[in-house]
Amino acid sequence: MTVLAVAVKYLRGRAVASALTALSIALGVSLIVASVLLTRGIKDGFVEGTTDYSLVVGAKGSPTQLVLSVVFRMDAATPNILMRTVRDLQHDARIEVAVPVALGDAYQGFRYVATSPAYFAPFPWRRKTFALAAGRFVHDDAPDRPSYEALVGSEAARRAGLRIGDRFYEGEEMAEYPLTVVGILRPTRSADDHAIYFSLASFWGMNEVARKMQIKPVTAVLLRAKRLSDLPSLHRELNVSTETQAVFPSATLLTIFNLLDVVEEALVVILAIVAVVVLLYVLVSMYGATLERKREIATMRALGARRVTILRIVLAESATLAIIGGVAGIVGGHGVAYGGASLLASRRLLIANPFVFSGLEPVVLASVILLGTLAGLLPAVLAYRTEVAENLAPLS
Amino acid sequence: MVARPAVVLRGVKKSFPLGDGNTLEVLDVEELRLPARSCTVLRGRSGSGKTTLLNLIAGIAAPTAGTIHVDDTDVFALSEAHRDRFRADRIGYVFQTFNLLAAFTALENVMLSMMFANAVPRREQRRRAADLLTRLGLAARLSHKPQHLSRGEQQRVAIARALANDPPLILADEPCASLDLRTAREVLAAFLTTCREAGTTLLIVSHDEAVIGEADRVLDLPEINRVASRNGPRGALDR
């Protein structure tokens, strides 16, 4: 027999109470792990899904709305700017690439994004690469010759069930302008997976107002400056203009993270309270169990068990409960996070895969074992101090 | 030849504090010697201090005054940790109410004693515990928990537990008091036979004539306890 075997025997002896204590630990740990994973997943999702371009240029308005709609497709599109602005920027000597983007309606919830082939081009400075799972990219149509060809993001194709050659439209008024799938993209782990792309000419052709406009509209322009040192002047000039604003995507990301940090701080307080409640439950459970068996503890002492052996038995019990609850909580927390991430992803929220085990898990498990064992310290000291003779008195 | 004493008490007093600031004197023994390998029966009425005397010899309760030697070791000169170890190694204790641990099987109850003493190698503990229980007629009850054993079987497990570390001294507090006559005889025969084979010194608190009949010596506690003589008839035997 070992101290651990004795501790496990005692835990099995009060199986229901032990199971409930382990379950309470598991629930607490699940909540903490799931919250941390989801928060991290959301942040990572934003980082992974952000653009490689230095500036997003759009109509005057909310900079956060502009970035959220153009880069993350999580907000309504800002008002349009004119294609003339795009041309001017494309001819600006300081700019390497200026890619127009027009946001339209959606098919089964998957956003229409009209753009030029440059949007998918593999520039050397780009982190993100667009690769085809099937078919081909959309051609850059002449403004008066729209092809109505569509390139579909991986998730949009999977969930909407679109395949190469499919023709589709949403709403009877669009029946005259059905889109034909000519390509399907590989996953990019960004909002681009949830979009349906076509040419600007197709976009203008499908839009009744745009059809009549001499100077065509777009929602925004993605800019890449040739030199970083040119960015401040470009940013300033485009913001001084009465029509446009220029936004650094990283600045908007920082704003989003600051908002998330506030939520995270509130979450930390709630999770700390949960942890304290769970620890108190473990303490009360172990304390009650120790009080109930003071006579047995006295018997063990009479048989020659040292005080420190009794202390170790009670601590081993609480540590065992903490290990069982901790491991179950980590596995359960990943399950909850995975379910939560799937739910959020189905609602178009960018979220990195939270089911990946990382350095978090050993830290959480070690903390749970340490705190769970500490919660057993008071009952262990009570057991340690049990007086033998007075607790061995014959039962009446 | 006079056998070397296994237990020697000199000037041992034990009193308990009362809530009103006074103390209750329970024991005052000038001298008591138990020869090695002997079987001594201790008698006395309820509340006369028999269990207290056993607890003092076992080192479970400390005397208010005096010294207690077991196998030439002054029990209370040892640190508490050493006294615990000494008790585990050298003294077996059979409680009046058995005090088996409910979460453990008969086999594990016996093995626990070995775990505390750490005298029997871990891999041999199971075999030795099974041998002891088999000798006491419990071969078919090894994996039974105390609540699934009869009182006679429980008492035999308690005896096996006391014998587990092959101690030179066993203290037994009315080991047959709660058993029916037939069971008591069976348990006693097994207990005494095992102890005699091992050469164990026995101090048994009992009023059972069968136990007294097997003893080398019978001690009436009131005769050695000066508290009883000071308090008069209260110290009379309860036979």
What does this protein structure show overall?
Chain A is of the alpha+beta class and 396 residues long. Chain A has 14 helices and 12 strands. In chain A, helix 2 packs antiparallel against helix 9, helix 11 crosses helix 12 and helix 11 packs antiparallel against helix 13. Chain A is elongated, with a radius of gyration of 31 Å. Chain A starts with a helix and ends in a 5-residue tail after the last helix. The model of chain A has no long low-confidence stretch (mean pLDDT 89). Chain B is of the alpha/beta class and 239 residues long. Chain B has 9 helices and 9 strands. A 5-stranded parallel β-sheet of chain B has the order 6-7-8-3-9. The radius of gyration of chain B is 18 Å and the shape is globular. The chains are: A alpha+beta (396), B alpha/beta (239). The interface between A and B is medium-sized, with 25 and 33 residues.
**Secondary-structure element string of chain B:** EEEHEEHEHHHEHEHEHH
Shape type of chain A: elongated
Helix content of chain B: 25-40%
Low-confidence stretches of chain B are: 233-239
Question: Oligomeric status of the shown chains?
Answer: heterodimer
Can you count the beta strands of chain A? 12
Task: Please describe the structure with a list of short key phrases separated by commas or semicolons.
heterodimer, A: alpha+beta, 14 helices, B: alpha/beta, five-stranded parallel sheet, four-stranded antiparallel sheet, 9 helices, 9 strands
